[in-house]
Amino acid sequence: MAQPRTPPDWHPDWHADWHADWHPGRLAARLPHLRRRALLTAATRAFFTARGYAEVETPYAVRTPGEDVHLAAFATERIAPDGARERLFLHTSPEFAMKKLLAGGAGRIFQLARVWRNREGSALHAAEFTLLEWYHPGAGLDALMEETEAYLRAVLPPVVARAGREIDLARCERLTVAEAFARHLGLDVLASAGDAPALAAAAGVCLRPGEGWEDLFFRLMLAHIEPHLGRDGPTFLTHWPAPLAALAARDPADPRVALRFELYAGGLELANAFVELADPAEQRARFEADRARRLALGGQGWPLDEALLAALEHGIGEVAGIALGFDRLAMLATGASRIEEVLWLAPP
């Protein structure tokens, strides 16, 4: 039997095959990270099972992949035995399906789901990746943050290292979006909500052609807020302005903000979480506004998920849910600098 071609001084330029991520030389370099990822997966299942969660699996090919304005989905087609054809999409999140299960009475549920988002690719993004998503009926925003902290402490060591910094998991910070903008930009971001010129004036920047309030908000976030988040310990960035509510309920105590948080650690945006919007009429209105804007920007169209709206009509009660980028969590656990370092095989 021929011996494998793996010289001690292996280099990817020795042979074209060695550029492939399955090649023994390249796979060996990732194996420590991949074995750590496998332990992370097992610990995740143990954590949620111990807390009374049921692991669920929902379809990956769906009629409605999501409703985010900037969403780009992978399209596919189902062909029935009689030859009938139906356009489907690979889901961008299991959220819609899992909410239907909540309406059916599934209780606490979690899923490690493969998801797909087109037009994505960078050191932190892959077009195909894994989301850990869980839903806790009866929980509010504070309870979900506490549970998320407990999960991180259960599956990670007390201190993790990334990009030359130590991240102490005991040093969790909770910071509202308004507090973050006041701290790092010296402005009241809620006072300008929806008014792009007002936000630009308050921030002392020029409004770019065609730039709306949301676009400018995220430009300021990327340049002035995110670099300060999660540097020494995880940061929960909470209470997002109402125009950025997404699928979150508004705060009854302050309708200018939504009950939403994002989690940052070690320079990584790890998770996005909501106290879920349960009002079917408001959800329909938000979906229709997002769909109109997406189409106006040249994005894709697909059917409205009437089954989800029917589930909300039936009722899901008060529930908090979170979507956590599992590959990024693996990066944090291993110190990997690029997402492909924690993937067994990179998407083609």
What do you see in this structure?
- The protein has 348 residues and is an alpha+beta fold.
- It has one domain (20-172, 233-342): Bira Bifunctional Protein, Domain 2 (BirA Bifunctional Protein, domain 2), CATH 3.30.930.10.
- Helix content is 33%, strand content 23%.
- The protein has helices at residues 24-50, 95-103, 141-155, 177-185, 196-203, 213-225, 280-296, 306-314, 326-334; strands at 54-55, 61-62, 75-79, 85-90, 109-116, 128-137, 159-162, 165-168, 173-176, 235-241, 250-251, 254-265, 268-275, 319-325.
- The strands form 3 sheets. Strands 1, 5, 6, 9, 10, 11, 12, 13 and 14 form a 9-stranded mixed sheet that branches. A 3-stranded antiparallel sheet has the order 2-4-3, with no helix packed on it. A two-stranded antiparallel ribbon has the order 7-8.
- A hairpin with a 2-residue loop joins strand 7 and strand 8 (165-168).
- The longest helix has 27 residues, at 24-50.
- The radius of gyration is 22 Å and the shape is globular.
- Mean pLDDT is 93; it is low at 1-16.
